[in-house]
C-alpha cells in the first residue's frame, strides 16, 4: 500500500508533537520530519541524539512512522549526522535540494557530483538520498533531471518527483512522470495556481485546489507500480493550527479518494 504523509514544515509554527498529532488525526500513515535550516527543524540534525526519546514517544503515541526527512542542504558534514539520525529512526529517505542556477551547466554537473558523493555515503546507512527538480535551480525540469539520473550511478540515489515544480517548468506532470519513473523513490505532492514562479498561497496548494491534473499524475504513478512515500509538502507563510490542519485534511481526502478509485488503497 502506498503510504501517505505530510512534511511537518506545514506546521512549522508548532512543536513536532503538535504537528504529528494533527497529521495523525487527518488519517495519514506517516510524516516527513522537517530538518530545514532556518525554516523548520523538527529534527535537529546537529542535536538529534537529545531528541531520541521525545521523537520515539511522539511516534508511539500517534501511530505514525517517519516516511522521510527533508534536510535540504547538501553539506557533507551535516549530511553525515543526518544519515546517522536516519539510521537510528529508520528513516528511509533524506530529501535534499539541487542548488545552483537554471541553465548553468557547471552548476548541474556540480549538483550531480555532490549527489553521487552523498549517495555513496548513504550506502552504509541503508538510506536513499532523493533530489527533485526545483524552480530556478540547476536541476529544474525533466530534461535536467534525466541528465542527473545519467550522471549519478548509485542504488542509494533517487528522484523526488514533485508535480508542482514540473508544472511550473511549463510541463504536464501526468506526462513527464513516465521519463523519471525508473529512478523515482519519493514524491512531494501539492497543487498550485498558475505557472509560478511560486506555488501560490498555502490554501491553494492543497491537493485539488489548483491547476495541476493531479488525478492524472496519481493514475500514472499507480499504473507504474510506484510504492514509495507520498508526502504533502506545503510551503509559504506560517499557518495557524486550524488552517494547517484543514490543508492537510483536504489534501488527504483528495489523494486518498484518487487512490481508492484506482484500487491502490
Order of neighbouring strands in the sheet with most strands: 1-2-4-5-6-7-8-9
**Remind me, CATH topology?**
TIM Barrel
What is the CATH homology-level superfamily?
Answer: Divalent-metal-dependent TIM barrel enzymes
SSE topology string: EHEEHEHEHEHEHHEHEH
Question: Structural class, judged by helices and strands?
Answer: alpha/beta
Helix share, percent: 40-55%
Briefly, what CATH class?
A: Alpha Beta
Integer count of domains: 1
Task: Give the helices and strands, then pairings.
Blueprint: E1 4-7, H1 16-25, E2 30-36, E3 40-41, H2 52-62, E4 65-72, H3 76-89, E5 93-96, H4 105-122, E6 128-131, H5 142-151, E7 157-160, H6 163-167, H7 173-180, E8 184-189, H8 214-223, E9 230-232, H9 241-261
Parallel strand pairs: 1-2, 1-9, 2-4, 4-5, 5-6, 6-7, 7-8, 8-9
Antiparallel strand pairs: 2-3
Can you offer a commentary on this structure?
The protein has helices at 16-25, 52-62, 76-89, 105-122, 142-151, 163-167, 173-180, 214-223, 241-261; strands at 4-7, 30-36, 40-41, 65-72, 93-96, 128-131, 157-160, 184-189, 230-232. Strands 1-2-4-5-6-7-8-9 form an eight-stranded parallel barrel, surrounded by four helices. The chain contains nine helices and nine strands. The mean pLDDT is 97. The N and C termini lie close together (6 Å). The longest helix has 21 residues, at 241-261. The protein has one domain (4-261): TIM Barrel (Alpha-Beta Barrel), CATH 3.20.20.150. It has 265 residues and is α/β, with parallel strands linked by helices.
Please tag this protein with its features.
globular, alpha/beta, 8-stranded parallel beta barrel, 265 residues, TIM Barrel
Amino acid at each position: 500500500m502506498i503510504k501517505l504523509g505530510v512534511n511537518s514544515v506545514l506546521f512549522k509554527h508548532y512543536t513536532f508533537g503538535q504537528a504529528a498529532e494533527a497529521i495523525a488525526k487527518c488519517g495519514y500513515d506517516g510524516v516527513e520530519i522537517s530538518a530545514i535550516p532556518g525554516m523548520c527543524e523538527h529534527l535537529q540534525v546537529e542535536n538529534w541524539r537529545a531528541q531520541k526519546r521525545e521523537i520515539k514517544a511522539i511516534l508511539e503515541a500517534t501511530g505514525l512512522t517517519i516516511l522521510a526527512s527533508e534536510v535540504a542542504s547538501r553539506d557533507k558534514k551535516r549530511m553525515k549526522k543526518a544519515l546517522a539520525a536516519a539510521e537510528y529512526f529508520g528513516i528511509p529517505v533524506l530529501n535534499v535540494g539541487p542548488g545552483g542556477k537554471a541553465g548553468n551547466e557547471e552548476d548541474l554537473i556540480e549538483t550531480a557530483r555532490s549527489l553521487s558523493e552523498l549517495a555513496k555515503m548513504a550506502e552504509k546507512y541503508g538510506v536513499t538520498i532523493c533530489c527533485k527538480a526545483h524552480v530556478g535551480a540547476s536541476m529544474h525540469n525533466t530534461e535536467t533531471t534525466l541528465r542527473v539520473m545519467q550522471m549519478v550511478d548509485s542504488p542509494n540515489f533517487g528522484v523526488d518527483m514533485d508535480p508542482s515544480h514540473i508544472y511550473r517548468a511549463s510541463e504536464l506532470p501526468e506526462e513527464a512522470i513516465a521519463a523519471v519513473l525508473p529512478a523515482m523513490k519519493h514524491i512531494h505532492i501539492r497543487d498550485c495556481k498558475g505557472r509560478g514562479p511560486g506555488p501560490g498561497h498555502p490554501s491553494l496548494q492543497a491537493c485539488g485546489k489548483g491547476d495541476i491534473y493531479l488525478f492524472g499524475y496519481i493514475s500514472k504513478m499507480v499504473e507504474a507500480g510506484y510504492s514509495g512515500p507520498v508526502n504533502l509538502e506545503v510551503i509559504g507563510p506560517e499557518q495557524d493550527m486550524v488552517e494547517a490542519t484543514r490543508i492537510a485534511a483536504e489534501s488527504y481526502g483528495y489523494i486518498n479518494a484518487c487512490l481508492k478509485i484506482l484500487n491502490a488503497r
